[in-house]
UniProtKB/TrEMBL annotation:
SUPFAM superfamilies: OmpH-like (SSF111384). This is OmpH family outer membrane protein. SMART domains: OmpH. Residues 191-200 have a biased composition (Acidic residues). It holds the Pfam family OmpH. Keywords: Coiled coil, Signal.
Length: 328
């Protein structure tokens, strides 16, 4: 309610200023959006969430241990004396009390989770407040509100949202600490262009159009480069094939004619086209095979005739000679 009256008072004050002849410039930020986009906060928040997850696991483990103690007592109760039963019950009560204290310490209203979140947010909030003041002074804002606070904002035009400018301001400050003088000058020039784009949306549209053209040119260059690489690979494949063919001829594994005919045959089969030249080559190959077979037969016949003649001479030589007849 107090914030509502403060807002109402601010708007009334702004109206009075406007009535005096000067327009009122009002902006707003979204603190939750800013925190989600600040790298330092997101990293620390992730670490805190890991801690919270570990605390939850410890609580569940403790609950399981207490449940086991209760089950054991229930099972063994008929066998225990009153003193032992009371001692066990006191132990269980003590364990439960410790569990409740641990839960309150970690997740209570003043627990470690809430406290560490506050410690985590505080430096970022200070940076945001400093950035808001710098932006408000530079761009002549009269009022800057936090959209994510308890303030009820029924409508807010997007053009008055300076959250992204605040994020850039914080990021710039972090980057400056890690840059050289030359890099700082380049960064300042880039920041100046970004600020101009915030003030002039047409300039941002022009910049985007230029970036799109540059991307299109880069893509065209990449396509041409890829086509050149493909052509180069095709030529290299042809050279490799020719080298393999020369090596085969050199080693004597295939003759030039056979290699040529085989290459033609493979290409024609791949294309699915049979020509008269292939038939002629096949007929020629068959004729050569027939001639070779006839020569082999002739050679065998000559060898057989020679062997027969040789055997006949030997037989004649081995026959006994006839003795001459005596005259009476």
């Amino acid at each position: 309610m107090k914030k509502y009256f403060l807002t109402l008072l601010a708007i009334t004050f702004a109206s009075q200023i406007s009535a005096q002849g000067r327009g009122t410039k009002i902006g707003f930020i979204d603190m939750e959006y800013i925190l989600q986009n600040v790298p330092d906060y997101t990293e620390a928040k992730s670490q805190l969430e890991q801690k919270a997850q570990k605390w939850k696991q410890d609580i569940e483990t403790k609950k399981v241990e207490i449940a086991k103690l209760k089950d054991a007592l229930k099972t063994e109760k008929p066998l225990l004396t009153r003193e032992l039963i009371e001692e066990r019950e006191e132990e269980i009560a003590f364990q439960e009390s410790e569990l409740i204290d641990f839960q309150q310490k970690k997740f209570g209203p003043n627990g470690d989770l809430i406290t560490q979140k506050a410690v985590l947010v505080k430096p970022i909030q200070d940076q945001v407040f400093t950035a808001v003041q710098d932006i408000a002074e530079a761009k002549k804002f009269d009022f800057v509100f936090d959209k994510s606070s308890d303030l009820t904002m029924l409508f807010a035009a997007k053009r008055h949202d300076i959250s992204d400018q605040v994020i850039r301001t914080i990021t710039r400050a972090e980057k400056r600490e890690q840059r050289t003088k030359k890099q700082l000058k380049e960064q300042e020039a880039k920041e100046y262009e970004e600020d101009l784009e915030d003030e002039n949306p047409a300039l941002a549209a022009r910049r985007k159009a230029l970036e799109d053209k540059k991307a299109a040119r880069d893509k065209l260059v990449e396509d041409r480069k890829a086509a050149a690489e493909a052509k180069k690979k095709e030529l290299q494949d042809k050279r490799d094939a020719a080298a393999s063919e020369r090596e085969a001829k050199k080693s004597g594994t295939v003759s030039a004619n056979d290699n040529k005919e085989e290459t033609i045959e493979i290409e024609k089969k791949a294309d699915g086209t049979a020509t008269a030249k292939e038939d002629k080559a096949a007929e020629r190959a068959k004729t050569l095979e027939d001639r070779k077979a006839a020569l082999e037969e002739k050679k065998k016949k000559i060898i057989a005739d020679r062997e027969a003649a040789k055997k006949a001479r030997e037989d004649k030589k081995n026959q006994p000679k006839e003795e001459p007849k005596k005259e009476e």
